[in-house]
Amino acid sequence: MQNLKDQNLIRVSKGPFFAKVLENREISDNIYKLRIESEEIAQNSLPGQFVSIKCADLTLRRPFSVAGVRENSFDLLYKVKGTGTEWLTNLKTGDITDIIGPMGNGFSIENKKSLLIGCGVGIAPIDFFMDVLSAKSLPYKSIGCFRSKYKNAKEYDYHITEDGTSALKGKLSDYLEQIITETATEKIFICGPNPAMQYVTEYALSLNIETEVALEGDFACGTGVCMGCAIKIKKGNALESAKICKDGPVFKGEEVVWR
Ligand SMILES: Cc1cc2nc3c(=O)[nH]c(=O)nc-3n(C[C@H](O)[C@H](O)[C@H](O)COP(=O)(O)OP(=O)(O)OC[C@H]3O[C@@H](n4cnc5c(N)ncnc54)[C@H](O)[C@@H]3O)c2cc1C
Ligand code: FES
Question: Are the CB atoms for 93 and 165 separated by under 8 Å?
């Protein structure tokens, strides 16, 4: 049985926390791992939740999925994209960051034969989810999909690369049917680009397999105030509005209206 924290039934402080950088290094092409000291965030994060970091003097905080936790620290994996992430690359051990979190909801933790899929830097919440399911001895298999071999990767059961630098060459769609069959998948959890999540959701739906997707929209406030991250969700025959930052980022795949 899950505890109250797992069910998000107790409130914990979201900060801001002024937290020390323990490590910041490039682990794969243009992808960095940032380890930050914060017992509060480490102890209260669920896989799928995110933190928002103040980057330099930029007004809008930047959101990143929690990629793993230890007792007193947590990890992020970030891909360098623009001003904020470029600034993050300059953080040194001992620098102080301004962070709020953990925010949003997390993946469901269930005793089902789960297939966890991370594409590109979408592997971040999946890495964390793998740790949590392993610690609870719950059954899962994992897929990591990348353009090129993801160095410093965890051991994924299936490591797919477009350029063939890992054992499986090609795209997720080349292997999904075979993997679902051989792992007798009962539920799929995925984080990655929207087209990949849409494809997996629709394919899984055709097999009556449930999915949960961790969406990465463009955020402004990141706290549910501005509607900047609003999407449409299917509830029966009706369409409802939902905010990725507040109601997500994890949604049932079959409820998402893909754009
Ligand atoms: C829930 C969630 C989890 C995520 N997890 C990860 C992760 O684990 N790893 C990862 O690499 N990425 C993750 N991302 C994506 C990450 O947040 C973006 O790549 C990051 O914010 C890029 O910041 P940037 O400043 O480098 O890029 P920029 O392109 O400069 O800015 C990124 C965003 O900031 C906002 N913004 C910037 N300037 C303006 C402006 N002038 N006016 C209005 N809005 C503006 C916009 O929303 C824009 O899309 C996640 C996103 C979400 C929503
Ligand atoms: S980013 Fe403002 S409501 Fe989600």
Answer: no
Distance 217 CA to ligand 2 centre (A): 9
Q: Under 8 Å CB-to-CB from 177, ≥6 apart: which residues?
A: 203
Can you give the CATH number for the domain in which 45 is found?
2.40.30.10
User: Among residues 237, 254, 252, 249, which one has the least CA distance to residue 64?
Assistant: 249
Whole-model pTM?
Answer: 0.95
Q: Could you give the number of structural domains in the chain?
A: 2
* Strand, helix or coil for residue 66: coil
Give the pLDDT confidence of 65-83 residue by residue, as tens digits. Answer: 999 999 999 999 999 999 9
Q: Measuring CA to CA, which residue among 158, 131, 164 is closest to residue 143?
A: 158
Residues 146 and 97 placed together within one structural domain of the fold:
no
Q: Given ligand 2 and candidates 221, 233, 247, 251, which is best to mutate, with the most ligand atoms within 8 Å of its CB? A: 221
